[in-house]
Every structure is written in C-alpha cells, then in structure tokens.
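Quick one: structure tokens for this chain, please?
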Amino acid sequence: MHKVKVFPSLLAADFSRIEEEIKKVESAGADAIHLDVMDNKYVSNTSFPIEKIKSFREKISVPLDIHLMIEKPENSIDGFLEFNPSFLSFHAETCSDVNKLIQKIKSHNCKVGLAVNTKIPVSSVFSFIHLIDFVLIMTVEAGFGGQKFMQENVEKIKELSQLRKQKNLFFEIEVDGGINTENSKELISAGVSMIVSGTTIFKSASVKETIRKLRNY
C-alpha cells in the first residue's frame, strides 16, 4: 500500500508572491510541488517554460513533480532534467520514442510517469507499464486550471489498479484535475496515491487542514 502524497499545483498560486506561496504549502506538509509545463501546441495554453522555472526553482525545498504537456518532449528534456525533479511525466502520444525517453529520465534518478488525457484510453500506456513508476490520470482536460472534475475518468484508475494487482506491479497512480476534499476519498479508494490539487489548496483558509483532508487521514 502506497502512502498518499499531496502535490500542490503551482499553476493556482499567486505569482506576485511566489516565494511566500511555496513556503506556505511546504510548511503545511506538501510532499512535492507540481508544475504543469505547456507549450501552446499539445494544449492551447502556455505555462512554466524552462526560463520561468529557473526563476523560482531554488525556492523549492520539497521534491519537484513536472508534468510535460508538450509536443516532442525528447527535444527539451535535458533542460527539465537539470532541475533535478523527483517525478517527471509526459504524454506517450507526443513522443517519437517512448521507451528511449523513459530510460533517459530514469538515468537521472528520477521517477518517470506517463500521463493519460481525458480522451485517451488508459490502455495506451499498457505496453510501457512495466517500465514506469507511475501513471498520471487527468480528470479534467489538460491545459487549464480550475475545471470541474470529470467523474468518468475514475474508471481508468480502477482499471489501472486492477491491472497492477493482476500483474503484481508496483507503479503508483497520480491524479490531477478538479481534486478537492470531497472527491479525494473515492480516488484513494480506487487506487490513487499521488494527488495533485491547485485551487483547492491555494485558496483554502487552512492549507494544512486541506492537505490533511485530501489525504483522507
């Protein structure tokens, strides 16, 4: 049984006081900081390019979780690996050689994951499942924060959890999109152990209490 970890998504933070926002969630017990990298190609939005991450990376003292929502991640992976992330995920359909990129990320002592967008079947990662450390299931359409949780994607989590048990595998399941203190219990029961949450955490009155509730402890 994996320990439930909570990763606040910096996309929902107030960037006019970014250092304060990072310290706030770290002191409240965040297990990692989650960064959504977008290139305005794979998704119709832009966020956290390499230069932007450089401006605040040294302020983060907990592990870093990077989700690449970009085309051809293999072309820019070196720059992101320089930030020494603990977790890094990408979308298989954006990459020309998934196996090669997985091995490259692993060679940097970084846990590697494959992300599954809402319209992509979870079976798309099955051929790589024995190579990766986690699967990131999107429960909103990738590209924008603050969207409503899409309940139908819970079935993907259950399918992965069943596969993990059947094959005696040890990958974790991460979830991102509309996660709050009401739906996290169902997601953990379905097999999730890595919870990404943005607005729910950064806009809450008590960040520490919200992180505790997200873990369902």
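Residues 154-167 form the longest helix (14 residues).
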